[in-house]
Amino acid sequence: MVLVAVLAACSTQGPAKPQVEVLQKIPHDTSAFTQGLELVDGVLYEGTGLEGQSTMRALDPSSGNVQKKVDLPPDFFGEGITVVGDTIWQITWRNGVAIERDRKTLDEIRRVSYDGEGWGICDDGQRLVMSDGSAKLTFRDPKTFKETGSVQVSRDGQPVAQLNELECVGGKVWANVWKSDEIIRIDPTNGQVVNSYDLASLKPSGEEVDVLNGIAHIPGTNEFLVTGKNWPTIFRVRFN
After folding, report:
1. Which of 6, 47, 123, 149 is 20 to 30 Å from the Cα of 217, by its Cα?
2. How far apart are CA 35 and CA 57, in angstroms?
3. Is the whole-model pTM more than 0.85?
4. What pLDDT score does 203 carry?
5. What whole-number distance in Å separates Cα of residue 123 and Cα of residue 67?
6. Based on the number of CB atoms within 10 Å of its own CB, is 53 exposed (0-12), middle (13-18) or buried (19 or more)?
7. Euclidean distance between CA atoms 74 and 58, whole angstroms
8. CA atoms within 13 A on the CB side of 82
């Protein structure tokens, strides 16, 4: 009996891989090459990409309907977005330009320049956190957009590259990993990956469907909205 108890205890040691629970399915415009997603004050903001197709959108989170949309210049490739107060920052891939927008109208207020590529961005309440496709997260001033620091992201001593869409929640940074079905949770104080989640079960079938990309925390809950580029569905999920 003692041996059985010891074996049973050994078999339960080690953390189980976190699971994803789907709570709701919401329609999503399949023409949207999703690059950024954020839910604020009952409005789901979405930035989309591709040259000549990049947009900034305001969606009804209950129906997925597009309530407002503005186009980026045709030579811009839109990437991640984040809301800061009454404004939205929208970054671009290789244009080296961040656009600050009025949150209510989505109209452009100003542009600022930055070096390198832009992939994902989020606001942790004190600073912006931005990814560039590498294993580095760059910290920026939310008003000037100037770089204030950076951290390298790693898991088990190995760098985790191709960090894409970001969401800042509770002092941690959630990130899509490009060309994967994985979302990771990062401690920005040291760059360590503290959790990983496999969302392969959510990916729709079809040749037009691209990668998982888009994380929006639902304020006041432990739930998120997630989707992908050209996906027909936004999923409301809980990470367990």
Report:
1. 149
2. 11
3. yes
4. 92
5. 24
6. middle
7. 20
8. 28
